[in-house]
Amino acid sequence: MKPGIVVHTLEASRKVLSDENKFKLAYPETHLIATQSPLINVSSEEHKRFRRLITTPILGYNSLAKFLDPIESIVIESLEEMASRSTKQPVMLIKETMALSLRVIVHIFIGSYHHHNTIQKVQHLFGAIDEASFSWPINFPGFPYYKALKNRKKVEEIVKSIVEERKLMIKNGSEVTEKKDLVDILLEVEDVDGRKLKDEDIVNMLMAFSFAGHLTTATALMWSMVYLTKNTLVLKKVKEEQEEILKSRPSSQKHLSMEEIKKMVYLTKVINEVLRIIQWAIPFCRKATTDVEINGYIIPKGWSVFIWQRDYHRSPEYFPNPEEFNPSRWDNNDNTKGGAFFPFGVGTRICPGRDLSKIEMFEQINPECPLSYMPAPMPKDNCLGKVTKVTME
């Protein structure tokens, strides 16, 4: 067992997450199968260089606008399929939202130029990687970790071939459409010294974003549907907001726009409340690079430091009646006073996909089903339920 410490004060937690000189990222070996990202196991300066390279193509609503049409199409198609299957038998909502979120992420990276079969193959291979991420690191046939390592290699080969294909197309002057995949954009960006991302960096980014993004997004989607079902007044307000946006849409406009997303003020509050109330079992993990004094205590060099954002998200000190699902608590910014709400992290290591995760009628069959809590809270029946298509008035 490696020694570690849990930090329970907000000030100390934010200090640990923000100080990259004294604390570096440190996660279990199995968790790193899919997260060997150039944003993780590098120095602070190199990390900043990578962030500068990817900030423009990935972060911010304006940058994400180019991916909005395929995201909308995938979500609509997936919901239609769920509703169709629900007429015959209940669906496992968490399985459905996991498939949906991973499909979106993979499509954003490589979707425009490759067949549906390739995307499906990557999704299938990633399933085993998910399963092994919280298992024992036993690299022997028959164990999840062994299978996950094999699958990672297969995904790497697929993505490497795609990167090589795109590089060759660019070299030969082949025309690239305006709506580029993210792999195209990452191949083009360069820092102030003219350096570009290495091929292996791009491959690792796909792996890291897919792993880090699809489970959290899928869980948030599942609980959003559950909480909206259980809170009819909240659902009514969300529906009314969407109807108003559609009524003001020009007749020539057929698809969702970033301007419309910015108008979804109440829906944003609902999403914030879902992210606040979900009790993630995986903490932020850091390791002290030197002896560090915090609040009069010494954290020895090499010790692991664990921070659970749920300690603050569920604290009555920052969120009155914390167990209550109440989107109206976000009517003003007092709830973020002191930085108590940080579902995507803190500092330069904040999740690069935090904006993407926000772009995305359910009847739960067993509402009293007990929950499991690893790695995230979810019903043990995988949220068995029925999806029904409704029309906007």
From TrEMBL:
PANTHER family: CYTOCHROME P450 26, CYTOCHROME P450 88D6. It comes from the Eukaryota. Belongs to the cytochrome P450 family. It is found in: Membrane. It is a single-pass membrane protein. PROSITE patterns: CYTOCHROME_P450. Its cofactor is heme. The keyword Signal does not apply. It comes from Stylosanthes scabra. Keywords: Heme, Iron, Membrane, Metal-binding, Monooxygenase, Oxidoreductase, Transmembrane, Transmembrane helix. This is Uncharacterized protein. Coiled coil: none annotated. The keyword Mitochondrion does not apply. Its main location: membrane.
